[in-house]
Amino acid sequence: MAQTEQSSALLAGRGRRKSGKAARNRLVGIFVPLLLLAYVAFAYFIVVTQYSYQYLYLENHASAHPTLTSLWFILIHILLLATFVHYIKVFRGPSSPSLPQDPPESIQRKRIIFESDQDGNPLRCWRDNCKGRWKPPRTRHCGTCGTCRPGFDHHCVWFNADVTAPDTIQSFLLTCFLAPILLIAALAPLWPICWKHATLIWASARSNPAVHRLWWRHGWWTWLGGPWTHYSWGFLIGAWLYPKHAAPVMQTDSDWLARPTIGTILLFFCGAAISLVCIGLLSTTLALLAKADLTVDVARRRTSARLSQNNPTPRDQSSSPPTSTIHHPLGVNFFWVPLPHAHSAGQRIDDDDGTAVSAGVVIPCHPDEQPYSAENWKQNLRIMLGLSPFDRLDRMTSWPISKSWVSTLQERAVNIASQQQASQSTSP
């Protein structure tokens, strides 16, 4: 009784933690896109209205290269539109999954290989509003959105939406690819101006007596965050106290360009940070997709490895039943494998409603094993991205197990069935 109450309390605690994490994710998911929108608006204001329109067009500084300037202006708007379209596709989220309540008849009667629970039954989700709905292969429940997503990769705070394969992952990759190109193309002409702003502000910060009184002359506490924060705060204070009547950087009526400001420097700093994040997401996601992996799968494997180190499983498991969860690490995937007729003679079973279902064996697969990975990376990419001949709609309810793994699962099932028959024949 005490153990039951302890288990209930543990489950309740986990539920509260998940609920709190989901609430935080939703809050961050609102805040981050708003920050991105503010950055895009500010960048458009500086690049288009202040530099392109005011400096190049009205003040006629583009007279030497009018064709090149026009092509650059058109290019950045095409890139901006393409990036915006793909961002919105991910931001709107994947289409609401119309998952059936129950699996197909071939799975219910266990006639094919399918991903199952440890007892060989189809996977079902009981979280939030799923209410026991069938979970097709590679379907995961998003705690932030409160629903199951086929091909769930991760919930991305940059879009405040789920990234799923193959529904929205194409637009996700294109956004990560186009955004750095857009930022480089848009900000490259302003780099000499930004660099001059930064050097003048730094020189003023090092020589201005007011900055020395406020920051540089103070002792150890200005170094609490390390050299990075020490010099960054000195730079910011120098920008704030930059002399208002100093000579302009360039001849223009735009105060944002003529006078050194922290705004243009932050424009480049944030642009570089966004570009690095996008390049990192693009490269890591493509590397995972080439192996038919998803971000959630990698996270589960890491968690499994960490828990296995803390609680190592016994090496000798010969006496354990094949589907026992006692010695299986977290993240193990189970597959129901129907037996060939030669090994299932006399083993057909009846379901609860009296319907005959095929006999078979539940095969556990270690988290490091990848039954859904094809023979080569090109085919994996086509499957994960829903390219021809792999229809993206099929990923809603099915996911192809590689031919080599089908043979491996069948071989394991036959071996286990043979061992079970041998043990039954030798038992008194």
TrEMBL record:
PROSITE patterns (UniProt xref): DHHC
Q: What is its main location?
A: membrane
Q: What class of enzyme is it?
A: transferase
Q: Where is the composition biased (Polar residues)?
A: 305-317
Q: What is the protein's membrane topology class?
A: Multi-pass membrane protein
Domain called Palmitoyltransferase DHHC: residue spans:
128-193
The record's Gene Ontology cellular component field reads: membrane
GO terms for molecular function, please? protein-cysteine S-palmitoyltransferase activity
> Domain notes, please?
The DHHC domain is required for palmitoyltransferase activity.
The entry assigns this protein to a family as follows: Belongs to the DHHC palmitoyltransferase family.
Protein name (record): Palmitoyltransferase
Taxonomic classification? Eukaryota, Fungi, Dikarya, Basidiomycota, Ustilaginomycotina
